[in-house]
Design a protein that fits this description.
catechol 2,3-dioxygenase activity (chains A, B, C, D), homotetramer, globular, Glyas_Bleomycin-R_OHBP_Dase (chains A, B, C, D), metal-binding (chains A, B, C, D), 2,3-Dihydroxybiphenyl 1,2-Dioxygenase, domain 1, 17 strands, alpha/beta, about 35% strand, 2 domains, eight-stranded mixed β-sheet, 6 helices, about 300 residues
């Protein structure tokens, strides 16, 4: 089986109070825990209303960018399996003990060729969704702000997207749903790859760029209507919007990009078709990348490709 | 009573074949007539599926920009009434004979202080909507492209918006639903005014700029969903989009701006609250004009304020 | 000019505490006043977030059904004009003093041929919308429940809809946007009429039935999406739903019908095309009334036609 | 890995011409093949615009109900694996040769405890989606009718839902996302189960009822807006609607149920949350089944539970 989903994004924020206002009041995430890490850093843990594990987002005060990603596997044995594959791929893998991350079980940790830290785990403390599991309501009666139900995916940069695609394929069992290539020829270069192990249109995308950087992480919304409403709320809450409501050609998703108070790029994302491993990978050629990324404007803006954390 | 609605926009296009492709195939308007004017110019007449009068858009080959607007009054006697008021305002009014505009009755014609030509008429040949008047369907079973139901409003520029507001008030019985002012002080300058005589949030808006120019004319859509779909179709049809889907602060409407093949700016517009003359006029101060015009990006782009036809 | 809009519905409820929970917590109306009337009845006054007059809904404890409707005119002089027309129509008109209705100016009152009480007034205390009039947000940042912006229209029953249509035409200057008739022949009977004086698709509809009864009064919503969400919230709040989300053939509006705790039928309503007096009246024949009322099920249910208050 | 998705539903229709009109003109499916089977039955093969395999729906003239379901596995070896598990479960499994179903490879076939025929296969002729795989549009420029993108799931009846749940778990590797039980006690009876092997909220649901029957099969839509539009089109095309637009409590999906001309129940379905095997199964108790099935009306109607094909 392998990777079930992106379990958590652990990111840095420059100011915890501002960050809490953003993630709790504007995005409507639920705080499940806060503490001070061993090294003295303040941390806050969040989940969306429709998530049942203890947290899907960890904020850590000090700096910006991503500390690490947690990937949840379906079976305990998947950890060992991925460990073997990671070693076979040439990665240095360390064991992670239960409790190194609050409410997360043991597992493994390694640094990707793109210099991002990945943790793989099977167990997380069950917290329950905000609607419960018995005769639930369709959504919580009193949502706050955007009311994001769940973490969805992330986009990172790498000096070698092709190598990352191979790693994600060989070690994580991912497959590419969409790709941007320099051409349709055999000897094309890979500009970016959108990858998943399940029916989500992507769990992790990788585009060419500096090592170890975060482009954005995204929360799932239900519809284009919710995407528009999210943008309205961001204006009311003075959240800087990077890209106003539009559709992606790649994934067909509908989107708003914006920044948290520390400058980390967030996205709210809806739609996108169901991915299946037997669907032919959609290939975009780089001359159509504007339309691929922003289906309506059909052009990339410089900020979108250069601002990373 | 006075003005019932904006009955038609008569605009110039550089190439009729391209224009027809845009207005018929992409926007889904219905061609009701085509002819050659007395001066040899090719003309095509269109209506939206939910309009019952003979046409609401006239394209005339040769140049760009607006030739004139037609304003339909509720009662025959409104024509005389408006003629009196126009003369009292100091405008030069001429009589317009039935048939000067195909399928349009007699009326009056005058040039506004902003140097736009306005025609006022009461009678138009009944054509019927595409769903008919007996046990109609909710919409036509086979719409083409965007499938715009109706012309909605226009925005023009004027060297003196205050004078235009006064003219529209005194002669047409319009009231301002929203305004952009340099300040909230008594002695503010008027940057723009959104005016109507009915419950449409605006029939005509006027902003400061050169005389006689067209900023855009707009077609009405039902919802934010239709606005997003319209933008998708414009990408498929290679229509240049000026402003991707967003909300206006002013009017609260939801919008896409785009250009016809001649460079005339069009809009699809949905939402906006019902206007009433006793509602306090919404006032925007110029420091908030970014948020007023584009609620999500909160900034004007230069193209939007400078490209006119 | 005549009638500007339906200014208020004044209705009876059996239990004020239950009613407040429904109108404030589920529908999200804003309480602007409460008092005890001269006759000892408890009253509560509400407005929607996008209304600027002091109230649009009055609840009075004791019984069910409608006490009266308030109709707001554009000009002070419209009151006298309507008074003359009402007398000419043969109605008995009485003068209503400022303050007989809290925060409402003077005017006239008469009983319609359908035995409903109508009040006509020009002045109401300005309260302001919940977003204000200076650089407003697109909607209030913290809406409650359905968050209905405004009262929209009402449907009443009458033993003689034809007479009521004539009265509304002659006295109020209304016109019929849609009609249900027994046939398309000249000598048809009128089953129901949807009437307005402005661009709202209806302000008051009248169908055949007992005198003096209320079928429903409706609040305006923005979209089909809001209609669906309103139904979800009603389930969460145990509000009895009469008709689940659907479209009307008549008016094209999208709708949920439900009951307040006293058994008065409410509606949330979105869409419907802009009405204009020169649009041909849409005529439904009674054999198509199922499709006319409920476009999807295409059949009336008995409860809908028989439960009145 | 096991089952990747429901690959095809093969159903009987009484009249092929009427059926083609329904599935092609109203639902907007694409006919990819038609032939006459060995036994003389006329057959037509369809796919949705966003499907890439040769077909997802087979119509066979003669009778009503489901002939069989095809389940596509990710790896060739999954067929043998499922064969072993099916035999271990006590099912009689036969081998199916390539070409027994046009454009479908070899595999296995068995009859479930509920007396439905299941086929398991790995290979289908690639046909390609209607938008292609290179720089695709977001959807086909000229969709017909509802324009359903893909087959989604089916609901069948069984005398022993618990046994079917066990079979689907043991043989197909499915897990229950939602369940209806007589109570929350250990010794409850199972009224129905909603099962999946991937992130679709259900691929197959089983409720108590007669053996071998079809309740419905469903096509996926993008949004509540598309669900409403589908219902509008069904009225225009005189398609009998069983349940007008509403939400399910179970799965949270948004839905319209309707009948094809032969009386087979169809559904269009949007939304529903992403399923994951570690999410606690949602349990509905039978006293809340009305709200579970129809979230807005909160009551089952007799037709829905008794009309099967």
């Amino acid at each position: 089986m392998g990777i079930m989903r992106l379990g958590y994004a652990h990111v840095r924020v420059t100011d915890m109070a501002e960050a809490k206002d953003h993630y709790a009041s504007t995005l409507g995430l639920y705080e499940t825990h806060s503490d001070t890490a061993a090294d003295g850093a303040k941390r806050t843990f969040y989940k969306g209303w429709d998530e049942w594990d203890h947290h899907s987002l960890v904020l850590e005060e000090g700096g910006v960018g991503v500390v690490k990603y947690g990937w949840k596997v379906e079976h305990e044995s998947d950890i060992d399996d991925i460990e073997s594959k990671a070693k076979a791929f040439g990665l240095t893998v360390e064991r992670m003990a239960k409790g190194e991350n609050p409410e997360i079980g043991d597992g493994i940790r390694f640094t990707t060729p793109s210099e991002h830290v990945f943790e793989v785990y099977h167990q997380a403390t069950a917290y329950g969704t905000e609607v419960g599991s018995h005769n639930p309501d369709a959504f919580p009666r009193h949502l706050v702000g955007v009311g994001a139900p769940a973490l969805d995916h992330s986009l990172i940069t790498s000096e070698d997207p092709k190598l990352m695609e191979r790693m994600l394929t060989d070690v994580f069992g991912f497959y590419a749903t969409e790709r941007v290539q320099t051409s349709l020829d055999e000897d094309h270069d890979l500009v970016g790859t959108w990858m998943t192990s399940n029916n989500q249109i992507h769990q992790l995308a990788v585009i060419g760029g500096p090592q170890g950087k975060l482009h954005h992480f995204a929360f799932r919304l239900d519809s284009w209507n919710d995407v528009g409403r999210a943008a309205d709320l961001m204006t009311m809450d003075d959240v800087p919007i990077d890209v106003t409501p539009t559709r992606h050609g790649i994934t067909r998703g509908q989107t708003v990009y914006f920044f948290d108070p520390s400058g980390n790029r967030n996205e709210v994302f809806s739609g996108g078709y169901l991915a299946f491993p037997d669907r032919p990978t959609t290939v975009w050629t780089v001359d159509q990348i504007g339309r691929g990324i922003f289906y309506h404007s059909r052009e990339l803006n410089e900020r979108f490709t250069t601002v990373l954390t």
